[in-house]
Amino acid sequence: MKNIKFILFALLLFPLLSAHGQQVEQIVQQYKNALSTIESIDCKVEQLDTFVSGHVWHYHGQLAMLRKPSDALFGFQFKASKTVGGEALYDGLSEFQIDHKAKSYELNTMPQSYITGSPGGQLVVPELMNYQDEETTPELQQNEQYFILRYQYPDLEEYDVRQREKKIFLDKTTFLPAKVIERQVSLDKKQVMTRIITDVTLNKPEHLQAFVKNFLEDYKVEIEESDENIHEHLLQTQVKDFQLETFTGRNISTRPSASKVLLLDFWEVWCGPCVQSMPKVQALADKYEDEGLEVIAVLMDKNSQDSAEKLLKKKGIDLIQAFGNQDIREYFRVLGIPQYVLIDGEGTIRKIYQGYHKRMEKEVQSLLAEVK
User: What dotted CATH number matches 243-371?
Assistant: First the structure.
């Protein structure tokens, strides 16, 4: 009798599960249908980001997007401007970072997908133009206002990033996103990125006005430097003697001791590639310490010391840890991380690497041979 009851319960339950799965597919399809009607969009966006370091960004701005299927980066063009600082325009060929106060703009003729990380670009909501998650089946939730599509993603073990999810709040009338929230946990701390979309208008001829580049006539252009050239002026020069404060409160110099080679590792807690490559830097330090290699890891955000210490303990990293500051950032042109600076026994900057490279070890070996 118990078995019969169980079978009946299972038979009753199965249609419910199927219907729920079918409902998810229907909502996703209606969302896709709504997106397919959009050729242009103009809206207000509220940006609210909370980082593992404890920092919070809260900005408002205006976003215009124009569909362009032939665009290889996004499939659309965009113009995004914050009420406080930062305006970005991407026309499908170039990116413009516009400063109206200075009446100038930076021109990037070879843009990559990272341009949505620029101050203006952070307002861009791709979910308003294209469906982003074809390979992930969402869970469907809802309240009085919204259908909520909840997407869950695998942990990134190498970056210690877990509990990754995204929620898209679809307006029950238009089936377009009214809010997008992305969450993840690193070092037991949540990082939350929220975009709230309001005042939406679709497919208006006046949307095209956002992409008229009137500023080209009167504004001064500043060509964005190639990443390959931004450190050339530092190479083969004597390094400046900065006194770095370590985590333990003592001072340490950016000039190496006699008969030593110094490797500076600039990093941040939230930087996945920094965390991923740090064990490799630790291995270099362990292997060549007795031959004269000194390694100093320079944390660029002093406020994240607690998170950094927890991460270092978890990863088994015992490199000397010091704090960076704005002067150091500007001197070493730390525009991207991780960044590595290799200084020989006479205090000359010999190599600067943006990102970890296997050839760093050969360069370390070569410089150590010079100081023997």
Answer: 3.40.30.10
